[in-house]
């Protein structure tokens, strides 16, 4: 496979390549930053903007809607975005999608109703879903040398947890010092300041955009007119159908884990600490602290994956290295540690988040190797958006509705047991379906 000039296997990165890695890492970090805002702001926004009481059926319904509707909307837009990435190029779609999610997140800070807030969260998730597909295809094609590509994809995706740490820190600062900031819509609500901070990634992008190269592989095929227009139907031809279905279902099961459990921890923590703290502000500070520990676990998982990805040849085996231990860890965290106090729960979340992030990194490295250039964005989008968003997010509704009926002594434990039950079912599904995943034919990207 030809290697693009300037992007060969020389281990020393050029300035342009460092810039590429920085922008990709920044994009991955703020993807998670924007995504995790829902987990942090949904409870306080429903209380202050919707005047709903935590633990009630109406409150749980709106929580499910805020997790479900934006992600489904984003997943559908992401499917279109994958197609546009193959038609118009990786860089152009990458830039516009980042601008979309930054501006819509900031606008959500000024929402006057739950409906408006929900619609703006839909726009934010649409940008995130498109950007994630464009970024992975862009990075994979800019670094075609196999070992180098695997490392760079692994380490740039390791920037995802930085976004989680930043948003948990931003929320902590907003909770602690919000009273000192200018009012937004006549209030000092911490969730509004957190949403407003979503505008941050737009600024470096505006400065750096002129220096970003287009994918040389996509550009060369487009220039030579050998790049065929992508057709989704190609992925479902008789020889490809089984592979495509297995990828979509495996992605749905594994990427549903946050919607099923990890993003519900801000509603579990208050029940654990309610007898140990004196004020609502202290409760939210504890929520942000536990969320920070959780995201430190994300970094550990990403770095572990970056270490293992070049040592384990079989992709199915690599996926199971994370899925099988996750079955044990998630069961312990949500069925037992949630009853044993905050320290046990936070420690368990660290390991649970680490294992999930290893799984998430797997898809970023695996998908570019199984789809050809003309279908890379479309195929990745089908897996990550149809499977990993539209289908996966139903787990959020499963958890919130199951929490209404599962037996437990209080609302926090009901949430924990519901989250654990949904997560275990999904992990078992992921392990079973992984046996039908196709091993990549070569270490090089398919043409």
Name the overall outline: globular
**Helix content class:** over 70%
Would you count the extended β strands for me? 0
Largest sheet: none
Q: Report how far the terminal alpha carbons are from each other.
A: 8 Å
Q: How many structural domains can be distinguished in the coordinates?
A: 1
H/I helix tally: 18
CATH class: Mainly Alpha
CATH topology: Growth Hormone, Chain: A
Kindly state the mean pLDDT as a whole number? Answer: 81
Radius of gyration: 21 Å
CATH fourth-tier homologous superfamily: MFS general substrate transporter like domains
Task: Give, in order, the helices and strands.
Answer: HHHHHHHHHHHHHHHHHH
Going by helix content, strand content and strand pairing, the class is: mainly alpha
| CATH architecture assignment | Up-down Bundle
Estimate what percentage of residues fall within beta strands.
Answer: under 5%
Characterise the protein shown here.
With 447 residues, the protein is mainly alpha-helical. The protein has a single domain (15-436), classed as Up-down Bundle (Growth Hormone, Chain: A). It contains 18 helices and no strands. The protein has helices at residues 15-48, 57-88, 90-108, 114-142, 146-157, 160-177, 190-196, 202-208, 216-223, 238-255, 257-260, 265-273, 280-308, 315-335, 342-366, 376-391, 394-402, 411-433. Helix 4 (114-142) runs antiparallel to helix 16 (376-391). The termini are close together. Residues 1-10 have low confidence and may be disordered.
What characteristics describe this protein?
disordered N terminus; 447 residues; single chain; Growth Hormone, Chain: A; mainly alpha
């Amino acid at each position: 496979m030809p290697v693009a000039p300037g992007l060969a296997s020389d281990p020393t990165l050029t300035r342009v390549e460092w810039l590429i890695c920085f922008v990709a890492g920044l994009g991955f970090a703020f993807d998670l930053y924007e995504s995790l805002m829902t987990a942090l702001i949904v409870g306080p926004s429903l209380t202050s903007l919707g005047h709903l009481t935590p633990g009630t059926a109406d409150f749980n319904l709106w929580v499910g809607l805020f997790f479900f509707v934006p992600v489904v909307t984003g997943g559908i837009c992401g499917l279109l975005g994958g197609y546009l990435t193959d038609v118009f190029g990786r860089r152009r779609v990458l830039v516009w999608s980042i601008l979309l999610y930054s501006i819509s997140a900031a606008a959500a800070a000024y929402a006057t109703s739950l409906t408006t807030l929900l619609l703006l969260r839909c726009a934010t998730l649409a940008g995130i879903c498109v950007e994630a597909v464009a970024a992975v295809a862009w990075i994979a094609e800019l670094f075609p040398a196999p070992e180098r590509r695997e490392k760079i994809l692994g380490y740039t995706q390791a920037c995802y947890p930085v976004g989680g740490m930043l948003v948990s820190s931003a929320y902590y600062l907003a909770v602690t010092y919000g009273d000192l900031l200018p009012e937004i819509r006549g209030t000092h609500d911490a969730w509004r300041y957190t949403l407003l901070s979503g505008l941050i990634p737009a600024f470096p992008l505006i400065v750096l955009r002129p220096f970003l190269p287009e994918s040389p592989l996509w550009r060369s095929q487009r220039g030579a007119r050998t790049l065929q227009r992508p057709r989704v139907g190609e992925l479902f031809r008789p020889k490809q159908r089984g592979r495509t279905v297995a990828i979509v279902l495996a992605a749905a099961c594994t990427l549903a884990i946050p919607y099923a459990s990890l993003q519900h921890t801000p509603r579990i923590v208050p029940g654990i600490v309610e007898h140990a703290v004196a004020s609502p502000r202290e409760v939210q500070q504890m929520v942000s602290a536990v969320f920070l520990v959780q995201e430190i676990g994300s970094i550990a998982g990403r770095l572990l994956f970056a270490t293992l990805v070049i040592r384990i040849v079989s992709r199915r085996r690599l996926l199971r290295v994370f899925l099988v231990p996750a079955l044990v860890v998630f069961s312990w965290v949500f069925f037992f540690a949630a009853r044993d106090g905050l320290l046990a729960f936070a420690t368990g979340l660290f390991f649970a988040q680490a294992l999930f992030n290893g799984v998430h990194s797997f898809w970023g490295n695996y998908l570019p190797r199984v789809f050809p250039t003309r279908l890379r964005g479309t195929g990745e989008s089908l897996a990550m958006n149809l499977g990993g968003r539209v289908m996966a997010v139903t787990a959020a509704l499963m958890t919130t509705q199951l929490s209404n009926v599962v037996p437990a002594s209080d609302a926090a434990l009901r949430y924990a047991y519901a989250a654990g039950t949904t997560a275990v079912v999904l992990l078992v599904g992921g392990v079973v379906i992984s046996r039908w995943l196709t091993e990549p034919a070569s270490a090089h990207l398919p043409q």
